[in-house]
Amino acid sequence: MPQNQNFGKELANLAKLYTEDTKYSGEDDNFDYKLMIFHDLCEKAALPQQAFAQAYSTMLRGLALDHYYTNRKNVLHVISFEEMCYATCNYFKGAKHKCNILN
Q: What is the pTM of this model?
C-alpha cells in the first residue's frame, strides 16, 4: 500500500467506536489496558497498523491529549506509533514503569 494512502473512513469509524471511558487520560488509567482497547477497536474499524500513528490521538483524552498536542508542535520529524506510546507512557508513569507497548 502507498505510504500516503488516506484512511479517513477507517479513522472516522475508529472515532465512532470510542467512548470517553475507553480513552487514556493519564490519570489513574492503565496505559497497557487502554492500548489493548485501541488495538481491538482498530481491528473492528479495519484500520491497518500503518495508520496507527495517525489514529493515536483518538485514544487520548484530558491531560494525555494535552501532552500529545503540546509535544507534537515541537517535533520536526515523523514519530512512529511506538515512539508516541513510549513518550506518553513514560511521561505519565515515569521511567521506572515498564511499558509493554508491543505485547
A: 0.84
